[in-house]
From TrEMBL:
Subcellular location: Cytoplasm
Top EC class, one word: transferase
Keyword Phosphoprotein: no
Keyword Nucleotide-binding: yes
Name of the gene: gmk
Entry's family note: Belongs to the guanylate kinase family.
Region ranges (Disordered): 1-27
Protein name: Guanylate kinase
Catalytic activity: GMP + ATP = GDP + ADP
CDD domains per record: GMPK (cd00071)
Functional description taken from the UniProt entry: Essential for recycling GMP and indirectly, cGMP.
Species per Swiss-Prot/TrEMBL record: Streptomyces olivoverticillatus
This enzyme's EC code(s): 2.7.4.8
Taxonomic lineage from the root: Bacteria, Bacillati, Actinomycetota, Actinomycetes, Kitasatosporales
Length: 196
């Protein structure tokens, strides 16, 4: 005979906590492409818009890909504690506005950050429940092809980004999950499943 009596307690399992997901991976691996593909089908997935001191690429719009700021403005964001994390990457600074992330998590929505390895490490320290996802290229040669083929950076900047890529690839084991970007469609589907 069962003595377990449920009185006044809900049989409904507790709601899953909304999660913060960090997507990282070497420059040129396809992070933006995969996220854009996923959000085309699922515009409800909220992606944090970072601040950067990098100049906009052709077609990039203020407040869409980034908030473009100068060095002085970036210094102020740091000084005022407005960034959840920030890092210098290949000669420019990038940071995640703190308030928007916390607001969306508080509203119960999953949050996606697309940031570099240094930023991912900071998030792991400050928000240990975050899930860290690493996007890896099918091969080194393919990564070089994609980064060069994008045609958005000078040869010097490509060299800096490839040097950073070697460090990032060596840190893959720090992440909870690795997705290999062979097919944009497949990875976008896998990423969506991880977010939910
Ligand atoms: P990241 O945001 O990681 O720097 P991008 O999304 O800008 O990288 O992608 C870099 C280049 O690689 C772009 O030209 C993009 O079209 C291409 N690319 C992305 N994913 C794939 C893929 N699965 N197969 C082939 N090319 C890809
Ligand atoms: P890109 O200049 O190609 O847009 O971005 C360069 C690198 O900066 C990428 O690895 C990208 O993920 C990273 N990045 C973009 N926004 C942020 C951010 O807010 N914080 C950190 N730490 N990295 C970022």
């Amino acid at each position: 005979m069962s003595t377990a009596v449920s009185r006044g307690t809900s049989p409904v399992p507790p709601a899953r906590q909304p999660r913060l997901t960090v997507l990282s991976g070497p420059s040129g691996v396809g992070k933006s492409t995969v996220v854009a593909h996923m959000r085309k089908a699922h515009p409800e997935v909220w992606l944090s818009v970072s601040c950067t001191t990098r100049k906009p690429r052709p077609g990039e719009q203020e407040g869409v890909q980034y908030f473009f700021v100068d060095d002085e403005q970036f210094d102020k964001l740091i000084a005022n504690g407005e960034l959840l994390e920030w890092a210098e990457f290949a000669g420019n600074r990038y940071g995640t506005p703190r308030k928007a992330v916390l607001d969306h998590l508080e509203a119960g929505e999953p949050v996606l950050l697309e940031i570099d390895l240094q930023g991912a490490r900071q998030v792991r320290e400050t928000m240990p429940d975050a899930q860290l996802v690493f996007l890896a290229p099918p091969s080194w040669e393919e990564l070089v092809r994609r980064l060069t083929g994008r045609g958005t950076e000078s040869p010097e900047v490509i060299e800096r980004r490839l040097a950073a890529a070697k460090v990032e690839l060596a840190a893959e084991s720090e992440f909870d999950t690795t997705l290999v970007n062979t097919s944009v469609e497949d990875v976008a589907r896998e990423l969506l499943a991880l977010l939910r």
